[in-house]
Write a structure and sequence with these properties.
The complex is a heterodimer of chains A (114) and B (114). Chain A is mostly beta strands and 114 residues long. Chain A has no helices and 11 strands. In chain A, strands 2, 4, 5, 6, 9, 10 and 11 form a 7-stranded mixed beta sheet that branches. Chain A has a 4-stranded antiparallel beta sheet with strand order 1-3-8-7, with no helix packed on it. In chain B, strand 7 and strand 8 form a beta hairpin. In chain B, strands 2, 4, 5, 9, 10 and 11 form a 6-stranded mixed beta sheet that branches. In chain B, strands 1-3-8-7-6 form a 5-stranded antiparallel beta sheet, with no helix packed on it. The chains are: A mainly beta (114), B mainly beta (114). Chains A and B meet through strand 5 and strand 10 of A and strand 4, strand 5 and strand 9 of B.
């Protein structure tokens, strides 16, 4: 089944403790992206990657890092999490650049930073 | 800057009713528009994608239309069921820029009463 897989689904951590949220897709998509979803603010893009070793900032990149060493994986790294990073996080991928291509989203990671 | 609006924020209807969810966007230079469904605390499931050159797309009881020139899309749900209760988000993808990130509306939370 074609899908984007995120882990973990739920995570509670303490301020300052580094964490990684993994994202993997099995569709051979070149484009991948991370979004966060907050009440009243909707979905906002954090980082994106056009291909292996090519990453760039989205709208809200502060406090996050990403890497793209393999085509299928696009982990989101929080080096020193803070409570304002408590959110619902989504990884997404896209198969191409044309209008035919839509986005496939993962099931989400609910992160709580205390 | 693209803005996507979905009004009303919430809608409650009796089972069996046909309903229309509205989405409007300010910049007509889009590649495509996607409608997603989100169950509480869960991921985004793509329902329909309409390319900018298309007028509508259908999947089962769902029909989505696009009027790019007026900046509007509608999602029509026929014979609504309690299982249709969820939040429905529309998202537009711009026609320019390598990132071509999605801009989301805030969503319409639909409740279908048995």
């Amino acid at each position: 089944e074609a899908q984007v897989t995120q882990n973990p689904r739920y995570l509670i951590t303490v301020t300052g403790k580094k964490l990684t949220v993994t994202c993997s897709q099995n569709m051979n998509h070149e484009y991948m992206s991370w979004y966060r979803q907050d009440p009243g603010l909707g979905l906002r893009q954090i980082y994106y990657s056009m291909n292996v070793e090519v990453t760039d900032k989205g709208d809200v990149p502060e406090g996050y890092k990403v890497s793209r060493k393999e085509k299928r994986n696009f982990p989101l790294i929080l080096e020193s999490p803070s409570p304002n990073q408590t959110s619902l996080y989504f990884c997404a991928s896209r198969g191409g650049v044309g209008a035919f291509y839509g986005y496939t989203f993962g099931s989400g990671t609910r992160l709580t930073v205390v | 800057k693209q803005e996507v609006t979905q009004i009303p924020a919430a809608l409650s209807v009796p089972e069996g009713e046909n309903l229309v969810l509205n989405c409007s966007f300010t910049d007509s230079a889009i590649y495509n528009l996607q409608w997603f469904r989100q169950d509480p605390g869960k991921g985004l499931t793509s329902l329909l994608l309409i390319q900018s050159s298309q007028r509508e797309q259908t999947s089962g009881r769902l029909n989505a239309s696009l009027d790019k020139s007026s900046g509007r899309s509608t999602l029509y749900i026929a014979a609504s069921q309690p299982g249709d209760s969820a939040t429905y988000l529309c998202a537009v993808r711009p026609g320019t820029g390598a990132n071509s990130k999605l801009t989301f509306g805030k969503g319409i939370t639909l409740s279908v009463r048995p």
